[in-house]
Amino acid sequence: SFTMNMYLFVYDLMQFCGHSWIFTNMIIRFMTFGKDSLADTFHSIGLVMRLCQLLSVLEILHILIGIDKSRLLPRFLQITERIIILFVVINSQEEVQGKYVVCVLFFLWNLLDVVRYTYNMLARMGIYYLPLTWLNFSLCIPLYPLSVLAKGFAICVSLPYFESFGTYSIKLPFPFTFSIYFPYVLKMYLLVLFAGMCFIIQNLFSERMAHLGTGNIKNKRS
Q1: Residue-number span of the structural domain to which 174 is assigned
Q2: Which N-terminal stretch is annotated as signal sequence (predicted)?
């Protein structure tokens, strides 16, 4: 309906503004302060980044109630990956926040999202620019695996701090006789992360073929 379409347009616009601000801020800071800006990335843009990622949880709801026709599982995996890395791994360990991998991760996320939300906004109005369509469904194929590698590296960097501080590790009281050692949980999640990457990449190729196939290109040109 018109109301739902307007709601989705406003949602995409809010996300576009947030990610554009982050992306522009990162570029300006790097051009101004050089490498010194990399270690301070999280403290400069972390709040807006967290707000944008929390807002993205609504996309799962959009799919569940049927106003977004995207596939649920790939989108769910992509959103939960970011939530876990941002809030559980990076936000909880101040020592990790100053690592260069955080800047790399934020750059990749926001580059992809600026393109994606720009495409989505125009698509809500029935506007399709072939170069933007190609960029939206092509850029994610090389950049998403790079972001997964960055996520994996961020987890590896954080492991010594989780081991030292015991963050999220729980020793269950009597009568339970076992404890949850969080570094082991993160190591197991690494396997899930890379297994999910294979599934999501396959889905990205399917989406690209569906939107950039010869017939679809001709229809959008006409």
Answers
A1: 2-220
A2: none
